[in-house]
Design goal:
The protein is mainly alpha-helical. The protein is about 40% helix and about 5% strand. The chain is globular and about 50 Å long.
Length: about 120
Amino acid sequence: MGRFDGLTDAQWQVIEYQLPKDPEKRGKGYPHAPWRPICNTILWVLITGSRWCDVPRGEQWGSRPSAHRWLGRWQVDGTLEKILTTLIEAADLAGLLNWERLAGDGFFSQRERRGRGN
């Protein structure tokens, strides 16, 4: 299981522009939740592999129902893919990735670097 304490300011600046400026409102009621807590909650579930009911509480975390709803929308419209790609590209530029050896869910594999001069 991974650990995630929320997006850093630098990570947030990298992905903030990927999110809708004026999200569609679901009618009367609560105003739209800020994007950063929603993203923190979605990424927490994806990184830790934990259940939605175990999402931490606090001001840096979004509500579970809102985060779950936005995750579904972003999977369909491609926003989630854009966010993850942007974060991976930023980590690569910062030299934080080893493209020769990748791991996912405890499974390690070798991968050829495509489009990187190899």
